[in-house]
Amino acid sequence: MATKSICLYFQVHQPTRLRLYRFFDIGKDSHYYDDFANRTILRRVAQKCYLPMNQLMLELVNQYKGKFKIAYSISGSALDQFQRFAPEVIESFRALAATGKVEFLAETYYHSLASLASGSEFEHQVKKHAAKIEELFGVTPTAFRNTELVYSNGIGEEVYNLGYKTMLTEGARHIMGWRSPNFVYTAETQPRLKLLLRNYNLSDDIAFRFSNKGWEMWPLTADKYVNWLKESAKDDEIINLFMDYETFGEHQSAESGIFDFMKALPGAVLADGTFSFVTPTEATKKHKAIGDLDVEDPISWADEERDVTAWLGNELQQEAFNKVYAMTEKLSIVNDPDLWEDFGHLQESDHFYYMCTKFFSDGEVHKYFNPYDTPYEAFINYMNVISDFQIRLDEKRAALDVKETVQKELKKAKKK
Amino acid sequence: MFGWEFPPHIAGGLGTACEGIVKGLAYNGVETLFVMPSASGDEDQSATTIINASDVEVDTVSETVEEYLDKVKFIHIGTNMVPYADPEEFSRLVEEDRKRQVKDFSISYGQKYKFSGKYGANLMEEVARYAMVGGTIAMQRKDEFDVIHAHDWLTYYAGIAAKELTGKPLVIHVHATSFDRGSVDNIDTRVFAIEKKGMEMADRVVTVSDLTRNIVINRYGIDASKVVTVHNAVDFSGRENLEVKRGVKEPVVTFLGRITYQKGPEYFIEAAAKVLKRTKNVRFVMAGSGDMMNRCIRHAARLGISDRFHFTGFLRGVDVQKMFALSDVYIMPSISEPFGISPLEAMRTGVPSIISKQSGAAEVLKYAFKVDFWDVDAIADDIYALLSYPALADFSNRMGFDEVNALKWNGATAKLKKVYESVVK
């Protein structure tokens, strides 16, 4: 086994898009989702990306007899949609799981930002997600990746307390300074939590730049890329390539040659011999940590800033975020399964992303992922849904009060 | 009578008012010919004869183009309104436009011009052409009318052309002024110039409220003796009250209109925040759209009231009725409102209304709650009182309903008839 490593992890997520929900619907209609859009988009992406890419990955794992390894993190929201609209995708992930060379990571079930809002909700979602992975794929996740790679000292501790010793995050420049992301680090406040940092340059070469003909490096070939990997890891140990799975066939079309590139990459890497492939959990066992990282304010893999302003940067986003999490306590008292489920979907980070008003350097990326014409429309629609949800919650709460009062009265009557 | 629009295809309140006026005049025994730039043929002609300016050729007035232009030489073929052009680009556009229009006019002389009848980018050009066609129509029908009546600045040039060519008296009707569209320091000077010209050339100026009358006298410098207020009315005939199932339990306080500076939307938001500090049992709705909408959304979010303060976007037709039917309090905090018909609609639907003293409607509505637009404490007080003391809301509903039903165009147009009589020799 080569001493240096490449760790490939793919993020699989699909948001539960909301339907056009008007003021007039509040209190009358509590179905919030655009089932048609969700089904259509999911089936399209399944055909273009999930199914062909899973097939390719399976062939490669088999072809290289276990020397090619990858990791996935699949959000619960995506898994729910696969089960409803494209169960064959679940089957193809099962086939990958059965090889034993594919690691499935833990994350929040609803691809949420609960780690920034509520400890109890975060814990609930992490456990719910792990249970779902066990149920579907028969494996228990041992490494954690938070939504959008959001990380801070505090989140690191929570994650460790939930039983994870490996966590993935961004090699954000403002945190790394002169240090290289190509090593394993530990959390400053929890030395037993090991951190894997995304090499964003090399990851984005594939995820963002691959098909850009204006890029001076275009076209990218596997051999060229292996040279870059070697160059980057000259004095280092591990290169973490983390990206959205939808890169393959959806963001970068099949015609761009992205599948051919991925087909050639494992062979090129293994033939060169500098690197071997590892999964995240293997990586933290194989490599020693060389230092700790102090991250006071949350970082993420998004935008130039690598912070959480894509979701919580403006007053609309903060207002929506505060309003939805303000309901947590009442929800636990009422403890109604339907409400819990809607509450989960309403926490998906995508809803807040749609309200982003940063339309400058990262505007193109934002627009690509956004079903709304303006952040204002996204906000109004979301708040209308929240209003209806709040009404349902209050009604259940009131009904519960009545029930309790009646029971108390009955007890009193019995005593007499 | 020169108008710009007529129901059913209308963009604002002007068309509706014109329909009320011609119907009322018919009731009072006054016949009208109603000229509009672009008629679609489905207008109700029971009370008036609609003349579609798009069907008329500009060729029967004078022998030559020169003679015609000489008679109506006051008409400056202005440039189109081009928003956000920088000074250099603007002057280039003006120059290009002037050349093009002289050419166009020479060609179109003797031809029909297809008006859009909208409020688009070439509005100024349409206004000028409408004047040409208006003059033609007036000459063609010289023996059929006694008075020329022009509604709002879009038609003033047409009115003046008609007066110049026929010598008949001109009444112009001021539904709004430039000062109701922009702030005092920021008005469209080209529109202002047309308005002033129209008022000066008119034999009588009719205003929809005393508020507007004062603006005409003080800001346009018009002789007070020829400015007459005829308050607007509203026609509720054929209107049935809509039964709407309510989704929200809480009472609803509604603002409905264009979300622009003049309508005072931010005073509503501030008042809402004040009310919400005292009671959570209320929802606020801002219905409509406009250039301040996004700013208002942010404003409400900043105040942390977005779960109780809703935006609907632009509402049309039956949704407007639905919105009134869903409301418990209506609010119009306009900074400047020549009249403002919407509180009348609200009160007719049984919704008590809070309106600003800076609106023409405040002059005729005894049973509406009147506040200064800037006095958010007073607005909040009134909202809270109407929500908390049912007797108050009931009283204001009952009296308000009778009050607005009494505001009929038949009465308003009887006054208008007197104005006509005063100018016909």
Summarize the model shown.
The complex is a heterodimer of chains A (416) and B (425). Chain A is an alpha/beta fold.
Describe the secondary-structure layout.
The complex is a heterodimer of chains A (416) and B (425).
Chain A: E1 4-12, H1 35-63, E2 70-74, H2 76-85, H3 87-98, E3 102-104, H4 119-137, E4 143-145, H5 153-161, E5 166-170, H6 173-176, E6 184-187, E7 194-198, H7 200-207, H8 222-232, E8 238-244, H9 258-272, E9 275-278, H10 280-286, E10 289-293, H11 309-312, H12 315-325, H13 328-334, H14 337-346, H15 349-353, H16 363-368, H17 375-415
Parallel strand pairs in A: 1-2, 1-8, 1-9, 2-3, 4-5, 5-7, 6-10
Antiparallel strand pairs in A: 6-7
Chain B: H1 14-27, E1 33-36, E2 49-52, H2 65-71, H3 87-108, H4 123-140, E3 148-151, H5 156-166, E4 170-174, H6 178-181, H7 189-201, E5 204-207, H8 210-219, E6 227-229, E7 252-256, H9 265-278, E8 283-287, H10 293-302, E9 309-313, H11 318-325, E10 329-332, H12 342-348, E11 353-356, E12 369-371, H13 376-388, H14 390-406, H15 409-423
Parallel strand pairs in B: 1-2, 3-4, 4-5, 5-6, 7-8, 7-10, 8-9, 10-11, 11-12
Question: Can you walk me through this structure?
Answer:
- The complex is a heterodimer of chains A (416) and B (425).
- With 416 residues, chain A is an alpha/beta fold.
- Chain A folds into 2 domains: 4-293, 7-stranded beta/alpha barrel; 312-415, no CATH class.
- Helices cover 50% and strands 12% of the residues of chain A.
- Chain A is built from 17 helices and 10 strands.
- In chain A, the strands form 2 sheets. In chain A, strands 1, 2, 3, 8 and 9 form a 5-stranded parallel beta sheet that branches. In chain A, strands 4-5-7-6-10 form a 5-stranded mixed beta sheet.
- Chain A is globular, with a radius of gyration of 23 Å.
- The model of chain A has no long low-confidence stretch (mean pLDDT 94).
- With 425 residues, chain B is an alpha/beta fold.
- Chain B has 2 domains: 14-234 and 412-423, Rossmann fold; 252-406, Rossmann fold (3-Layer(aba) Sandwich), CATH 3.40.50.2000.
- Chain B is 43% helix and 12% strand.
- Chain B contains 15 helices and 12 strands.
- Chain B has helices at residues 14-27, 65-71, 87-108, 123-140, 156-166, 178-181, 189-201, 210-219, 265-278, 293-302, 318-325, 342-348, 376-388, 390-406, 409-423; strands spanning 33-36, 49-52, 148-151, 170-174, 204-207, 227-229, 252-256, 283-287, 309-313, 329-332, 353-356, 369-371.
- Mean pLDDT of chain B is 86; it is low at 60-66 and 73-85.
- The chains are: A alpha/beta (416), B alpha/beta (425).
- Chain A binds chain B through residues 22-29, 314-316, 318-320, 322-323, 374, 376, 379-380, 383-384, 386-388, 390-391, and chain B through 245-249, 283, 285, 293-294, 297-298, 301-302, 304, 306-308, 310-313, 319, 322, 326.
